Amino acid sequence: MDDTYEQEWREGYTPATAMEEASRCLLCQDAPCSQDCPASTDPAKFIRSIRFLNEEGAVETIFENNALGDICARVCPTERYCQKGCSRTDIDHPIDIKGLQRYATDYAYDISMKVLEAGPDTGHSIAIVGSGPAALQAAASLRCFGHAVDIYERQPTPGGMLVHGIPAYRLPDDIVNRAISRVKELGATIHCDVSIGTGPNDDITIGQLLGKHDAVLLDPGLSEGKMLPIFKDNDNVKLAVDFLDEVRSSKGTMKVPDNVLVIGGGDVAMDVSTTLKKLGVPTVTDVIWECSCEFLASKEELDGAREMGVTLIDGYEPKEASGHQVTFKHRVIDSTLTISADLIILAVGQRADLDHLGVDLDLKGVEMAQEGPATSDPHIFVTGDIAQGDKTVVWAVRRGKEAAGAIDASLKGGE
Amino acid sequence: MKQMDLSIDFLGVHFENPFCLSSSPVGNCYEMCAKAFDTGWGGIVYKTLHTDDFVVDEVSPRFDELTKEATPFVAFKNMEQIAEHPLAQDLADITRLKKEHPNKIIIASIMGQNESNWTELARKVEEAGADMIEMNLSCPQMTSHAMGSDVGENPDLCCTCCAAVKRGSKLPVLAKMTPNITDMTEVAKACMEGGADGISAINTVKSIANVDLDRHIGMPIVNGKSAVSGLSGKAVKPISLRFIQQMRADPDLKDLPISGIGGIETWRDAAEYILMGATTLQVTTAVMQYGYRIVEDMKDGLSHYMRSQGVKSLSELVGLAVPNTLLADSLDRDFKVYPVIDTDKCIHCGRCYISCYDGAHQAIQWDPEERKVSIDKDKCVGCHLCRLVCPVHAISMDKPEMKPGRKGDPDKIVIEPKDVMYNLK
C-alpha cells in the first residue's frame, strides 16, 4: 500500500494480471454476481468479455448500465453485493469483481472510449439540485433520454461526497473528474456556487427553478455530521464529514496532532482513521460501538485501517466527555475505558441539511418516509442518500437511475 | 456502440455473421440449434447425417483433455462419430429449423459409404431445406474404413465422392479436410476437380492426449483399452492456419473459398482465420467448454476490430495475411534485433536468464548479489526467447541492426507487431 494521501492505495491490474483474475471466474450459469448489484451491473457478462479478449465489450456492459462505473470500481463494498454469492468462494476466494471493473474502465479511459450517447432532444428540461453520485447518474440517464439537464451545486466544485467525503487515496480527483466530464460531454450543464432554497444565503428558490424547468430533482445528500450530546460545544471535537472535507481540500497537507481518537465503526470512521495514518498521525485509536462481528465497515476499509496500524477497539459506547478525555463503557462486559486524545473525531452518522430548501419532504429519520423518488409535489423528485436504501455510491447510482426513469415517465405521461 | 454489419457472402449464400457451429455434438438436434441461433450464431453445420444402414454405436466415456499448468482444454480429444438419430428425424429438424429461422444458414454435413449413398444424402438434405452441403471426408474415428479420414486421405476417392454429391444436389458443396496428411492442397484440388465449391479445414488431428500411468492405457479408457481419435481446440489452431494459408497461397487454388475450423474461441482467433483466408468460421470445442454464449464476445470483438481496421465489410479482410507468409528461405536474413530490458519493470526473477542459458545462447548475464540481468550482445543472436518468457513483459525489441557486411536501412525493417496477441505491454 502506498502511504501518501493522494496516491491511489490499490494497484490496478495489468492486462496479464487481469486475465489471470478473469480466468479464475467460473463463468457460472445464472451467475450469482449478476443478481446482486443494487445498480444492476452484470459482472458475469463483463468478466466473460475480458476473458474472451473483448475489453471494449466489457466497457460497454459497465458504462451502459452505470455512468459512474469507474467510481464504483474503486469504492464499492463488493463483498456485500456482487461478490457475496460468488461460486468461486467454494474453491478459495471470490473473484475481484471491483478490480476487474477498474481494469476495464481504466482501459476505456486509456483508449478514449465513449459509451453513453445523448438521446434526441425531447424539449424537456430538468433541474438537479446537488451534484453527488445520484445526481450525476440521474443527469447521465436523463441526457440519454434526451432531456436537457441543469445541475445546481452550492459548492465551488461538483461531486458531492465523491469529492468532499471519500478520501483521495480511495477515489482520486482524476477519477471523479472523468465522471463529471462524462456527464458534461453528454450535454448536462453544471452551475457551481449556486445555492438553492429560501434561506438568506440562497440564490434561487425551488419555485423559481420550477418556472424554468419541467421538473426538479433534489439530491441534497447527507452532508451534515451528527453530533452526540456529550460532545456538544467541546472545542477538541470535529465531525467526520468536516474533517474529511478539510483534508481533501488541503490535498492531504493539513496538520493534525499526534494522538487522535475516532468514534464510529462505519466506512466513514475507517476513512477518517486511515486518512489520519496517511497524514502521519502516530496514534490513531478508533472506538467502535458495534462488536467486531457486527462491524458495519466494508472489509476493504477495515483491512486498510488495520494495515495502516489503526488501533480498533470494539463494543464500547461513549458515556462521558470532558475536554480531551472520553470515558466509554463496554456494551456487554463490565469494563470502563478512558482515553485522552489531542483531537476527537465523531463518525457516528450524518443527516441532510434541508431546512433552507423550502420544500416539505416527508422524512423518517434521515430518509424519506416513502420508497422511491416521488414526493407529494408531482414536479419534485428526490434522489441520493435521502432516499431509502444503503448509503453507498452503488445505491446512489441505482437511485439516480430510478429518479431519471420516474421523471422520464412523468414527462411522457404529461405529453 | 452499434455493432458493425458482420454479414458475409460465401458460395453465393448470405451469412448474417461468419460464426457457425461446426458439425459435431454441439449441433445435434433441433433444440440445440434453435438455442444457438437465438444466441446469435449465423449458421450451423448440422451434425453429420448418414443413411440408416450405418449404425452409430458410441463408446463411453468418449472425451479427454490436454491441460497445461492451470489451463484446462488446451486441446480436446473426442471419440464421437456422426449423428445418432434416424436420418428422417434429423431431416425433419433441419426443415423445422430453416422454417423458423429463415435468415440463418443451415449447412448439412453428410457422409456416404459409397457413391450412390453420397448422391442420395445430397438429394435428401436439399429437399429438407439445407442451404449448403458439407462433405465429411475427415472424421478420424469412424468404425468403417469406407468412411471418414480414410477417404479424406485419398485424393481420387475424394474427387469421386464430390462428383457423386454434385449429382444429387445443386446446393453449394464444401469438402471438409482431414489434417492427417502432409499436403492438403492435393486433396483440396481433387475435391474442387470433383465439383466441390469450397473447402472446410480442418477436421480433428489424430491423437493420443494422455496415458494412464498405472493401467498403461491411453485416455479415455474404454473397458481397459483406448484408441487413437481426433484432437481439437486451441492447440490445433496453428496447424489449421498453416493448412489454410498453404491452400490459399497455391496458384491453382487462388481465392479458394474456405470455412475455417480449429481452436476458435475469441474474436482474435476469428480475425486470424479471416486474415489467413477463411470466409466463414466454425466452432465446436470452445462451445463444448463454455456454451453458445461465446459468440456474443466474438461478434462484438470482431465488430470493434473492423472499426479499428477501417473496413465496412468483413470480406475486405479475407486473406490479407496470406501473401505475407513466405517460405523460410525467402525471409530477410540481413539484420538482427536485440532484446532490451526495462530495468524499472524487471522484478528480478531470472527466468530470462534460465531460458537463455538452457534454451538459447547464454547471452543473459545474472548478477546473483543484485539479482540483476544484463544482455551480452556478443552472444545474443536476437532470438527473443527471453522476451517471451518474461512474466512482466519487461523485455522489448530494440532497433534492428544490419548484420556485418549486409546492406539495408534498419529504420525500414518491420519487426514489432502492431498489436500483439492480447497486448501485454
How would you summarize the topology of this molecule?
The complex is a heterodimer of chains A (415) and B (425).
Chain A: H1 15-24, H2 43-51, H3 55-65, H4 69-75, H5 97-110, E1 125-129, H6 133-145, E2 148-152, H7 161-164, H8 173-185, E3 189-191, H9 206-212, E4 215-218, E5 224-225, E6 237-239, H10 240-249, E7 259-263, H11 267-278, E8 283-288, H12 299-308, E9 311-314, E10 316-322, E11 325-330, E12 336-340, E13 343-346, E14 350-351, E15 363-364, E16 367-368, E17 380-382, H13 393-413
Helix pairs in contact in A: 1-2, 2-3, 2-5, 3-5, 4-5, 6-8, 6-13, 10-11, 11-12
Chain B: E1 8-10, E2 13-15, E3 19-21, H1 30-39, E4 43-49, E5 63-68, E6 71-78, H2 87-100, E7 105-110, H3 115-128, E8 132-136, H4 149-152, H5 155-168, E9 173-176, H6 184-194, E10 198-201, E11 205-207, E12 211-212, E13 217-218, E14 229-232, H7 237-249, E15 258-261, H8 267-275, E16 280-283, H9 285-290, H10 294-309, E17 335-341, H11 351-359, E18 364-367, E19 372-375, H12 385-389, E20 395-402
Parallel strand pairs in B: 3-4, 3-16, 4-7, 7-8, 8-9, 9-10, 10-15, 15-16
Antiparallel strand pairs in B: 1-2, 5-6, 6-14, 11-14, 12-13, 17-20, 18-19
Helix pairs in contact in B: 3-5, 5-6, 8-10
How would you describe this protein?
The complex is a heterodimer of chains A (415) and B (425). Chain A has 415 residues and is an alpha/beta fold. Chain A folds into three domains: 15-110, Orthogonal Bundle (Fumarate Reductase Iron-sulfur Protein, Chain B, domain 2); 125-222 and 352-413, FAD/NAD(P)-binding domain (3-Layer(bba) Sandwich); 225-350, FAD/NAD(P)-binding domain. Chain A contains 13 helices and 17 strands. Chain A has a five-stranded parallel β-sheet, sandwiched between helices. The mean pLDDT of chain A is 95. Chain B is built from twelve helices and 20 strands. Residues 420-425 of chain B have low confidence and may be disordered. In chain B, helix 3 (115-128) links the parallel strand 7 and strand 8. Chain A binds chain B through residues 14-16, 19, 23, 27, 48-49, 52-54, 56-57, 60, 115, and chain B through 1, 70-71, 265-268, 290, 293-294, 296-298, 300-301, 304, 391-393, 422-425.
